[in-house]
Structure formats: structure tokens, C-alpha cells
Amino acid sequence: MDTAGKIIKCKAAVAWEIGKPLSIEEIEVAPPKSHEVRVKIIATGICGTDDHVLSGSFPKVNYPVIPGHEGAGIVESMGEGVTCLKPGDKVIPLCLPQCGECSSCLKSNTNCCLQTHLCEPQNLMPDKTSRFTCKGKLIHHFLWISTFSEYTVMPDSTVVKIDAAAPLDKVCLFGCGFSTGYGAALNTAQVMPGSTCAIFGLGGVGLSVVMGCKTAGASRIIGIDINKDKFLKAKELGATECLNPQDYKKPIQEVLVEMTGHGVDYAFEVVGCLDTLATALASCHLGCGVCVMVGVPPLGSRLSFDPMLLFTGRTLKGSFIGGWKMKDSIPQLVSSYMEKKFNSDALISHTLPFSQISEGFNLLHSGKRALSDIKGREKETGIILGLSPRPI
Prior knowledge:
alpha/beta, seven-stranded mixed beta sheet, 10 helices, 19 strands, globular
């Protein structure tokens, strides 16, 4: 059935207010306007950032809202002026835009497009209207992409075409989690061959940092987490050793300094805890160590540490979505995946039908997942999120 130019009714997970669980609702998705694209979402991952939306700890979000920002799908239709896509293209929505025109996009040393949520809220489309309604009420967008919906609309600056052979239920993680961690090692830290790295936090993003350090040629990759159940996976993906801070009587930064001589060459904080960030910085090599902040800190928090750690030559850096210019880089990452240059499939610990999205968040809270992946399928009766019965 031709749906171009028509309102589509479908299922979506709506966060009606802060502190309430997601509710699966039937929504109406309006056609895309100028320079917008409507996408049928086939797969979407659950990311910690989505949990921040539910708890109200993600800034500048308006409710009710459809969260989700780590997805993959197929172009259903486009508005006027879209030249980079056509119906049927496989795509990944981008939680970080690349408009190609702002001062940041024109610089080679930053990926922080000025259309990002950090600069201006992305609760509505650029024309300040929504494409979602439910029960007669306006529903807000999240980061312009809202992948917790069977159909979604986004500006063409936030979506990119990928290899037609790519499995959407695997590469959806490239929209945020995998790219963030992998890029933190390759782009932000620029890990050198033969170096020593420490990764604080071995969730999905932390494991992606491990893979990035391995790709970069690090000789010693030390994973750090209080959950020992994560150590086997970390070692499978490249960690040379793993430490649980609770096993030591002295602070873990002192343990790392003793293990490595004068500290690690690169430390990555992937927890989003300021105390852990200070610990990671203190674990870096005197005079030349680089600490990269990957985890999102608590809203409104302030960092406090001994400034002598920096005065003596260490560097503290932030990594925003792995430092990738998303439109340029995501198709290349997908191509590298297709060439089996890394095993990002290992990050997927659970697959769930869309109706069990709340269970996915429970798994995230329990720490029993790397990256929970919600996959999609198409049946004769319509679009139902679950396992795909045929190649997608």
C-alpha cells in the first residue's frame, strides 16, 4: 500500500511524564515536510541515555515524548528537497546531526554540529511542530529521531544511507553505543600502538572502547568494573586483564600506577560518575597520560579534583559520540563491519519484542546486558517489533 503523503497509524513507546514507565500506544505519524524523511524503524537498541529520559535527568526534554535514538530502518517517504535518499534505502538515524553548513560542521576537528540538542532542544521538528500525535495530544520528538516508534520522521541532516546488505538488527547499535565507545579510542584519545589503556566501566560502550583500543594496537588493555560477570566478554573482545576495585584495599588508581610503572597512557571513564572520572585521571601516566570522559555525568553536577594532575602534564578530554562526523563516518563504520574488521555483534546480549521494552530497561538496570537490542519484523497484519522471520 502506498503511504507516501498520508498519515500512518502505528505503535510507539511513549513517556507521558517523568518517573513513569513507557506505555505502548497507537500514534499517528504525519508525512514528512520539506527536508524531512519518514523511516520505518526495523531495529532499535536500548541505551542508558533513554533511561535518563524516563528519570528526567536528560536536559531540555519535553513530555510526553517518544524516546529512542539508536536505531536502523528503511526510508518510507521524503519531503521536498531531500536529495540524498530514496524510498527503500536502508538508513541509520543520527542522534548527532551533521548539517554540513554550520561553523562546527565546516571545521575538521569537531563533530559538534550546532543543530545538536546541546545547542538547541530537538523536541520538535525545525519548523517547531511535531509529526506525532496520540489520543489527540501532541507528542514530542527526542533528538529529532525517536526510534521507539514503528515509524518516525526526522530532518535529512539526521539520517544517513548505509550498505543495502547490512543487517539492520545488528548495525542499529552504530547510531550511538558502539560508535561512541569505539570512536573514543580511535578519534578522541588516538590510542597509539603498544600503549597501555584502562577502561572504567564494561557495559556496551565500555566494551566498544576495548575494541577500539585493540584495533589501535594497544598492548595492554585493562578493564575495570565491580561486576565480574563482565570480565569474560571483555577479554573475548580484547582486554588483556580485568580488575574489580572491590578486591583491593588501596584505591584502584594506586593499583594501576603500581601495575604500569607510572600510570596508564590512556584512561577512559565510561560510567558517568564524577568520582570515577577523578580516579581515571589519577591513574594516567605522569606528564603524558590522557583521560577521556565518555560516560554522561549527572545533570547539574560539578567536577572537583587536584589541579596538579593536569599541571604535571596529564590531559582530560571529552568525547562526544566518539568524535565521529556522523553522516561521513557511519556508512564507513558499517562497511568495516561488513568486512568483519570488528565484532560488534558480541555487544548484543538480549533480543526482545517491542512489547517487552520495559523488560529491556529492567535488564539494563540489573547490569545483565551489554546492549539490549529490540529487533523488528514485518507480518501480513502489519509492523510488529520482534525477531525477523526473513532477511531485512
